Amino acid sequence: MLLPAPIERHVSGWHAALVWESGPGACTWLMTGPGGEKLYLKVRAADAAVPLRDEAARLRWAHGAGLPVPAVVAECASPGREWLLTRALPGRSAVEDELTADPVWLVGVLADGLRQFHAAPAARCPFRYEIREALERVAGRVAAGMIEPDDMHPEHAHLSPAAALAELERLRPASEDLVVCHGDYCLPNVLISDGRVAGFVDLGELGVADRWWDLAVATWSLTWNLGPGWEEPFLAAYGVARDDSRIAFYRLLYDVTS
After folding, report:
1. How far apart are CA 136 and CA 170, in angstroms?
2. Which pLDDT does position 42 carry in this prediction?
3. CATH number of the domain at 5-87, out of 3.50.70.10, 3.40.50.1460, 3.30.200.20, 1.10.1840.10?
4. At what angle do helices 244-257 and 211-226 cross, to 10 degrees?
5. Is 244 a catalytic residue?
6. Given pLDDT bands bounded at 50, 70 and 90, which one contains residue 218?
7. Is the pTM of this model over 0.90?
8. Of the residues 54, 184, 202, 255, which is catalytic?
């Protein structure tokens, strides 16, 4: 793997192992140094829906706000690509079999972790993802032909991109309960150690938004990763009553922006 100089200087001679790939040019590598040091290297297209430069800025803010997130080691851009090198965090992904084997315990831990994230200082966060900004982004993606109906989840597969935007306008909540949201609070993006959430990763969508942006996606992820029946225990552990209208809005929003 040919690396740009700002990245190469940190990992020259290190072993690289591919750990995730979502398509051509979109991958994550685990870099292991001669003494066992571990860093993660993300590579994305420069025009990716969530640019790595945005994730780096959010990681730096979240780190300064006291959240357990990866520290940025280096970032750079090369023609058509972006590169982001971060330190590894302790803990295991919440999707590991040993953790999902006890879903009652895991659901409570994940709810505690999300409350921890939402306690970050929203007044100091420069990144916004309120409804107005979100719908403007979707409208731009629809106009640019960036939404592929085949990539949408089955419950939204009947909607064309234009119909999805119209449905979002119909479902639009009248108010927002603003907190610092993770933006993609799925089980693979949560690390657990010593019985608690020890880290958060994949923060390219972090921003001030309605807490249901995270709650809707988190409960969806529980069903994908643990099976049905865990949404209500999660919401109870977090401390909110179910809001089906907001869940429908934010899940569709997630579908057309991720």
Report:
1. 15
2. 97
3. 3.30.200.20
4. 80
5. no
6. very high
7. yes
8. 184
